[in-house]
Amino acid sequence: MTQGSLCQPMRPSAPLGDKMPGLGPTTDVVYEWWNEKLLLDKHLSLHIEMLKAEREVEIQRLQGLPPWDGRRKLTTAEKTVQKKRERMTRIELLCGTFERDALYADKVRLARDGKPDENGPHRFHFKGRMRRVRVEYARMGRFDIGRRYPKNVPSITRTGDELAGEDHRKLGVTAQGMPKDIRAFCFPYLRDIDMVACHPAILASKAREFGIAVPGLDDYVKHTESRREEVMSKHNVPKDLAKVLFTLLLYGGSYAHRVEEWKKKYGHQRRIDSTPIPRVVRLEKELVTLRDAVMARDEFQDRVPGIMAHEATKISKFTGKPKNEKECKCSTWSQITQDWEDQALGCVQRALEGAGLVVHALLFDGCQVYHDPNVDMEAAMAAASARIKEELGMDLQLTEKELYDAKRMAKMV
Predict the structure, then answer these.
(1) CA 137 from centre of chain
(2) Is residue 386 part of a domain?
(3) Does the pLDDT of residue 2 top 50, yes or no?
(4) Helix (H) or strand (E) holding 123
């Protein structure tokens, strides 16, 4: 495939991935618009980086590195080849979903969902040749709760991070499933709206609603960064690992087990102090108490037993045997909290649309919208927070993450 033909009506060089399995009826339709030149440039840069890594692997082979057979660890160069090839495949699959005609951003009018409409009330505030894909969102069909995923586009498996407690999982080749580096390069014309400390804040709000005291969780919500820094300093780990620790604790993960995993993986590189931090130990116990108390409430008995029974039919990634009760509880709790997250995202979506913004993509704990200089983003985010409080009783604040780049957007032609 040549670079010049990548965004033309085409078949990707990689085989089409399967669509996300198990999704229910369509809940939302959104049109994603991608700038053709930026997408081409990103694909080209990934291709060049992959070729450089492939040459390094070839040199390593000449120096005696055996072909990878699954029994040895991949070298850094081999991992880079895999990573870049996977990203290229995502872009190629995305291009295979584009509607056939390209439109210029300054010539098109939009309906509220981003669909081209000559009488639409919205327009873009940048230039460039754009391609679009119609994205249908849906929840998992068995219980119709939780997050919304693209259902009508190909998906490929993203390798999970075992240390982060991440499973391998399928992600659609839309903005929702794209790696951060592709989003950062391709979307200078988008505003990335995020719910701050989303899951901790939701659980703290629900605890207050149900009359369950969670002083440790309240403390973490108020002092998120300083509590992560405390873990970083005490255990000598980077910020990403400290952040993952608290995420895992929210769903029943073990503090002691996580520290032991850090020692196994990084102990030869750095000194990992395994002495527990008392406040984190208390938070771990507090979160388990909260989970069990909420799942035992009468209003959750229409879903908890069914989800628990379904999870019991799955195989544990830790033991290779059917999940035990603790694992089933963790998975069930995760689905319940993700449903609360999606309810909050629905409020954000409606509030931003009400402010005159067009949504580009739903991202679980936030969303992307097209830049519009006529909309006060701070006021729109405040209105979204107020709507969450009014409709759901949750105290959630919104912030804008780094993505929009006025200088790069102005150069788009």
Answers:
(1) 15
(2) yes
(3) no
(4) strand 122-123
pLDDT digits (tens, 9 = 90+) for 71-124: 888 899 999 999 999 999 999 999 999 998 999 999 999 999 999 999 999 999
Contacts of 82-88 with C-beta under 8 Å, sequence gap 24+, read 84/46, 84/47, 84/49, 84/50, 84/53, 85/50, 86/156, 86/158, 86/159, 87/46, 87/179, 87/181, 87/182, 88/14, 88/43, 88/46, 88/47, 88/50
| Residues whose CB falls within 8 Å of the CB of residue 265, separated by 6 or more in sequence, listed in order | 163
Q: What is the DSSP annotation of 273-305?
A: --PPPHHHHHHHHHHHHHHHHHHTSGGGTTTHH
Q: Dihedral of CA 406/407/410/413: which sign?
A: negative
The verdict on 260 and 247 lying in the same domain is: yes
Asked if 158 and 171 touch (Cβ cutoff 8 Å), the reply is yes
**258 and 381 together in one domain:** no
Both structure tokens of 299 = 């209003």
Does pTM surpass 0.70? yes
Whichever domain contains 343, its CATH number is 3.90.1600.10
Q: Is the same domain home to 234 and 204?
A: no
Which residues constitute the domain of residue 238?
A: 213-296
List, in order, residues 6 or more apart from 124 with CB less than 8 Å away.
33, 105, 106, 108, 110, 130, 189, 370
Residue 335 lies in a domain: yes
Burial 77-103 (b: 16+ CB within 10 A, else e): bbebbebbbbbbbbbbbbbbbbeeeeb
Asked whether residue 319 is domain-assigned, the answer is: no
The secondary structure element, H or E, covering residue 361 is: strand 359-362
**Whether 239 and 289 share a structural domain:** yes
Q: Which of 168, 187, 4 is nearest to 86 (CA)?
A: 168
The model's pLDDT over 30-81, given as tens digits with 9 standing for 90+, comes to 999 999 999 999 999 999 999 999 999 999 999 999 988 878 888 999 999 9
**Residue range 308-365, pLDDT digits in tens:** 999 999 998 888 899 999 999 999 999 999 999 999 999 999 999 999 999 999 999 9
Residue with tokens 């592709």: 182
Q: Which two structure tokens, joined as six digits, stand for 290?
A: 């909260």
